[in-house]
Amino acid sequence: MLRIAVPNKGSLSGPAGEMLHEAGYLQRKDSKELVLVDPENEVEFFYLRPRDIAIYVSSGRLDIGITGRDLLLDSGANAEEILQLGFARSTFRYATKPGTASGVEEFGGLTIATSYEGIVAKHLADNGIDASVVHLDGAVETAIELGVAQVIADVVETGTSLRNAGLGVIGEPILTSEAVVIRRTGAGTDDPKVQQFLRRLQGVLVARSYVMMDYDCRVEHLEKAVALTPGLESPTVSPLHHEGWVAVRAMVPAKEAQRIMDDLYDLGARAILTTAIHACRL
Ligand SMILES: Nc1ncnc2c1ncn2[C@@H]1O[C@H](COP(=O)(O)OP(=O)(O)OP(=O)(O)O)[C@@H](O)[C@H]1O
Ligand SMILES: O=P(O)(O)OC[C@H]1O[C@H](OP(=O)(O)OP(=O)(O)O)[C@H](O)[C@@H]1O
Ligand SMILES: [Mg+2]
């Protein structure tokens, strides 16, 4: 059985469960369930605090985990990313009240509040800055108003929390984060069970970001049409009953589908349609 750590709470938990469900795995129905066995797929899911997942995976007791890159780096655990999942995207940044500091180099002697002490301590050390770090569990933006710190370092997605607290970002993002699949460093991905798990998640990512496009076009326009829809390997081209015409089928990125349909139409293609892909193995 492959043993997999899944976030039990917070921003990662819902999307991780949805992705596993789309990949064909059983998922818990009750948020109080801590362990779930999926016998058909030969996997066992452990629902754990997102912050603890890298520690479990680095111990080798669990084969794989889903967590955030920022949490992985903050933990300092002996685990590495083996797949990016594209959700829970955020940046990790410093912020202050206007007028406190214009750059990270002015943080010397100040106190920085954060839930991610590991990342902040390393970043300060790398930049040779001597500042104090105070750990808070959450709602870090309020720390400045309440006088606990002059600077915060926190997750920023839309920036709404910072704006609401009257804070502005300082310097470049310390890192960009997203949900990732992790494995103990050096354990590799050769294990066929790990390979199968990764292929299933990759299949979900592709099914979400591509659509299938079909259209008819005249033979003399085929080369130009195929250049617009090269597909993954190469498009399928079938003869139509109506001589001089072919039917073409190819996967295209969902975000570009409308633009490609316009370009195909201008080229003389007709009956252009797209359909959703529900599952996929590349
Ligand atoms: N607003 C957000 N948008 C995108 N990702 C976020 C956001 N807030 C947190 N994350 C990501 O979620 C992960 C943190 O998960 P965690 O459960 O510890 O905190 P949380 O989502 O803030 O939940 P809570 O604070 O309610 O416990 C990190 O990878 C972080 O980058
Ligand atoms: O840039 P934004 O879109 O506002 O998102 C970022 C905020 O979201 C998270 O907070 P959460 O709501 O999880 O509360 P927390 O601070 O207590 O973790 C994060 O810690 C930031 O505060
Ligand atoms: Mg939070």
Keywords, please?
D-Maltodextrin-Binding Protein, domain 2; 3 domains; binds magnesium ion; binds adenosine-5'-triphosphate; 33% strand; 8 helices; 5-stranded mixed beta sheet; binds 1-O-pyrophosphono-5-O-phosphono-alpha-D-ribofuranose; 27% helix; 6-stranded mixed beta sheet; 282 residues; Alpha-Beta Plaits; alpha/beta
Overview of the molecule:
The protein is of the alpha/beta class and 282 residues long. The chain folds into 3 domains: 2-87 and 178-189, D-Maltodextrin-Binding Protein, domain 2 (3-Layer(aba) Sandwich); 90-176, D-Maltodextrin-Binding Protein, domain 2 (3-Layer(aba) Sandwich); 211-276, Alpha-Beta Plaits. Helix content is 27%, strand content 33%. The protein is built from 8 helices and 15 strands. It has helices spanning 10-22, 53-59, 69-75, 117-126, 160-164, 192-209, 222-228, 257-266, and strands spanning 2-7, 35-38, 43-48, 64-68, 79-84, 90-96, 111-114, 132-135, 151-156, 168-177, 179-184, 210-218, 236-239, 245-253, 270-276. The protein has a 6-stranded mixed sheet with strand order 2-3-1-4-11-5. Strands 8-7-9-6-10 form a 5-stranded mixed sheet. Strands 13-14-12-15 form a 4-stranded antiparallel sheet. α3 packs across α4. The protein is globular, with a radius of gyration of 24 Å. The relative contact order is 0.14. The mean pLDDT is 97.
